[in-house]
């Protein structure tokens, strides 16, 4: 499922116009992105949590040349599944 599929599903399930469903989905994603940028943690019970993890810099290697390169420290978004989602996905196999 991609963003367009999500918008279509919301519009159908809620009987909303497609444009209104798109506004809602964009608002949710924009709000979540802003929270992560501000360093906040997002927890959706039964689904999972989003947070920003900080990684220290390290010395890596260029896979083509083998040269050593310095990799700067960085912050990346991280998602951890909730217990309920994890169990539901596992049961569906």
UniProtKB/TrEMBL annotation:
InterPro entries in the record: Hist_DNA-bd (IPR000119), IHF-like_DNA-bd_dom_sf (IPR010992)
Keyword tags: DNA-binding
Signal sequence region: none
GO molecular function: DNA binding; structural constituent of chromatin
Keyword DNA-binding on entry: yes
Record carries keyword DNA-binding: yes
SUPFAM superfamilies: IHF-like DNA-binding proteins
A GO-annotated cellular component: cytosol
Lineage top rank: taxon: Bacteria
Family stated for the protein in its record: Belongs to the bacterial histone-like protein family.
Protein name listed in UniProt: Integration host factor subunit beta
Lineage of producing organism: Bacteria, Pseudomonadati, Thermodesulfobacteriota, Desulfomonilia, Desulfomonilales
């Amino acid at each position: 499922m991609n963003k367009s599929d999500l918008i279509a599903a919301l519009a159908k399930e809620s009987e909303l116009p497609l444009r209104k469903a798109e506004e809602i989905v964009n608002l949710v994603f924009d709000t979540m992105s802003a929270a992560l940028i501000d360093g906040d943690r997002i927890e959706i019970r039964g689904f999972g949590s989003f947070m920003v993890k900080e990684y220290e810099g390290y010395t890596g290697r260029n896979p083509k040349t083998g040269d050593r390169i310095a990799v700067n420290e960085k912050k990346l978004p991280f998602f951890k599944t909730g217990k309920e989602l994890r169990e539901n996905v596992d049961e569906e196999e």
